[in-house]
Design goal:
Elements lengths: L2 H17 L16 H9 L6 E2 L16 H10 L14 H12 L4 H4 L3 E7 H16 L4 E6 L5 H5 L3 E6 L1 E2 L4 E2 L1 H10 L5 E5 L12 H14 L2 E6 L9 H4 L1 H8 L5 E5 L11 E7 L3 H15 L9 H10 L2 H31 L7 H5 L4 E3 L4 H11 L1 E2 L5 E3 L8 H12 L1
Parallel strand pairs: 1-12, 3-4, 3-7, 7-8, 8-9
Antiparallel strand pairs: 2-10, 5-6, 9-10, 11-13
Bound molecules: ligand PLA.
The site of ligand PLA has 16 residues, from α6.
């Protein structure tokens, strides 16, 4: 066929094809994301008193996002950096070295022995997902146990790791279901993986005590379970990054080979920079070299290598004693503001004469208050009061301010009385 005839016949075929159903006509809309969808709904609301206590993103007392001073100073210092080329597949080595020192402590034996494999990840979500893919590849039959309730279980679903649930939160006490947790850990098949939140558990704001962590660690030893720590809030629970690392340190000192996913979204306010770290404690330096190389190989065909800017900010801060001190001070300020808002919310609810017990508002820690409100009550809060939160009743305390706390307390009281 001559060129023009081929073109004409292709066009006819194209027309025929286009008249049939579209390529994606079988695709139905995905459900709205339970957390990020709340922000979308909030942005679409034009009511002047609207309040967003959905996503866990820190706001100052004026309700505005915060750029930390240490971050501004780090940005100023790296502004002259001409380094714009690709990072290695595992990201910035300087960044990961400082990140793991923050997680495990400067003096940790596992660091001196070079037994930690670490790679820079796309924030905390990316760290968990990379580990889930690694688990699937190298322990394909293993299970992951996820706490009830949790928020990021879809990570393991999409990595095709089979998951089970373990008891964590007791709605009756609005605290930890420690005996249920221990029983489920005991009954899980030996060698299971467990997702643990290192501190400031999301969504409940309930953490085990130091003593309880020790008991959990011992039971993990007996059962030969693998702990994966999701550490998205180091510093946000107590205001002290060392104290918030205590669960990691307990497990590490008990000789567990743990994995840890760190996020700098919250504690440095680098949400959109997507800067995180996945580390895996190995039995030998050789094993850690192998593990790191495999983690990189999983990243390579997915996103090739992670972004540069956020990692440079973090390593500039963590490697400079003065900036690091400033950061510690600023993290404490954020944590303290949240604690004072817990007190203010509880105070206002009690002042309004609520008959319910709101002690958990001040007992729980970190960014969230797991209020105990039902889905129907949450729907009323949104519909009648323009207060936006996830349907599980989780209130992001970081969105509460002296300006909106009375309004919020009144709305909560109205739907719960
Ligand atoms: N792990 C926990 C426990 C988290 O709460 C979050 C974020 C992440 C990991 C992931 O954060 P990153 O990828 O941004 O580092 N949780 C948020 C948002 C703030 C979310 O669900 O992604 C939340 O509102 O629950």
């Amino acid at each position: 066929m001559a060129g023009r005839a081929i073109a004409r016949s292709n066009m006819r075929a194209g027309k025929r094809f286009m008249s049939t159903a579209g390529w994606w006509s079988h695709v139905t809309p995905a459900p709205r994301d339970p957390i990020l969808g709340v922000t979308e709904a909030f942005l679409a609301d034009t009511h002047p008193s609207k309040v967003n206590v959905g996503v866990g993103a820190y706001r100052n007392d004026k309700g505005k996002p915060v750029v930390l001073q240490c971050v501004r100073e780090a940005e100023r210092r790296i502004a002259g950096s001409k380094f714009m080329e690709y990072l290695p597949m595992g990201g910035s080595v300087k960044f990961t070295e400082f990140a793991i020192r923050l997680a495990y402590g400067d003096e940790a034996d596992v660091l001196n022995d070079k037994r930690v494999a670490s790679v820079q990840t796309l924030s905390g979500t990316g760290a968990c997902r990379l580990f889930a893919d690694f688990q699937k590849r190298f322990k394909p039959e293993s299970l992951v146990y996820i706490p009830i309730p949790t928020c990021h279980h879809n990570i393991w679903r999409d990595a095709r790791v089979e998951s089970r649930l373990f008891r964590y939160y007791d709605p009756a006490t609005k605290g930890l279901d420690f005996s249920g947790l221990m029983e489920d850990v005991k009954n899980a098949p030996s060698g299971s993986f467990f997702l643990l939140h290192a501190c400031a558990h999301n969504p409940t704001g309930v953490d085990p005590s130091e003593e309880q962590w020790k008991e959990i660690s011992q039971l993990f030893k007996e059962k030969g379970h693998f702990p994966l720590f999701d550490m998205a809030y180091q510093g946000f629970a107590s205001g002290d990054t060392e104290k918030d690392g205590q669960a990691i340190r307990i497990f590490m000192n008990d000789g567990h080979q743990i994995a840890c996913g760190q996020s700098f979204a919250k504690n440095m306010g680098l949400y959109g920079q997507r800067v995180g770290c996945l580390s895996v404690i190995c039995s030998t330096p050789q094993e850690s070299v192998a593990v790191k190389s495999q983690l990189q190989q999983i990243a390579r065909p997915m996103y090739s290598n992670p972004p540069l800017h956020g990692a440079e900010i973090v390593s500039t801060i963590l490697s400079d004693p003065e900036l690091k001190d400033l950061w510690h001070k600023e993290v404490k300020e954020m944590a303290d503001r949240i604690i004072s808002m817990r007190e203010a919310l509880r105070f206002n609810l009690e002042k309004l004469g609520s008959k319910l017990n709101w002690q958990h508002v001040t007992d729980q820690i970190g960014m969230f208050c797991y209020s105990g409100l039902t889905e129907e009550q949450v729907d009323r809060l949104t519909r009648e009061f323009h207060v936006y939160l996830t349907r599980n009743g989780r209130i992001s305390m970081a969105g509460v301010t002296t300006g909106n706390v009375e309004y919020l307390a009144n709305a909560v009281h109205e739907v719960s009385k």
